[in-house]
């Protein structure tokens, strides 16, 4: 049941924007295509991700695009900047790759790009990577996250729906997705009888409602397989609850911070390993009594 990381493709893919669609006030869908996706493969995991490569410092890179050559020949300040995004869908027949972006005006790099990009424009990316898909061995599933985790959660729900159609047993699935308000909700496909709980944060801190929802959930009997992703602060609190208070084995959890409040992606990725080690040392060294204190 433990997640196994997929082997990462080191050769960049070259793609063209096929179309874009504004899904909600703060989410844009970008569909990529082109012959550069001929050797792209995805589908094993529901949290597949790619690393988009954005030119920086006014750099114009030689063709064919070679990341190792760029890093060898260009000054560091002109290396492409990477941004990591979940694969929302991959259609190998149409050779179309769908990626959803959370946008906040001109804030950030990838969000503004997604909001303004036009069909025909090109972008390079690495990947895919991935490590999670709902386990057929689980007695029930927990899916919880904020907007950044919505694409992976929606894909996991589709996988569970397809599995039931193929004869897999019906098991409980508890879904909690926190967004700013009702305008940010999306229609998602879920197995029959599964309720998607949309939590509206309003002016509250990111993840506060998610932590409360997971803490208040009456856990079904049997083995859980949990997917909890989003802002690192609330992910840490839910991890603490699951590992220490609920005593869930680590191998039944896919749990990590996609981003951290107060940090851009470069800063978060630079500090993520240290953060994770700190969280692990802090939580794995505590017993259930200390965790509940």
TrEMBL record:
Lineage of the species this protein comes from: Bacteria, Bacillati, Actinomycetota, Actinomycetes, Kitasatosporales
Residue numbers spanned by region Disordered: 269-293
A Pfam family annotated for this UniProt entry: FAD_binding_9
Recorded GO MF terms: oxidoreductase activity
Residue ranges of every copy of the FAD-binding FR-type domain listed in the record: 10-135
Compositional bias per record (Low complexity), positions renumbered to this chain: 284-293
Family matches, as CDD domains: siderophore_interacting
SUPFAM superfamilies: Riboflavin synthase domain-like
Protein name, as recorded: Siderophore-interacting protein
InterPro entries: FAD-bd_FR_type (IPR017927), FNR_nucleotide-bd (IPR039261), Riboflavin_synthase-like_b-brl (IPR017938), SIP_FAD-bd (IPR013113), SIP_fam (IPR039374), SIP_rossman_dom (IPR007037)
Segments passing through the bilayer: none
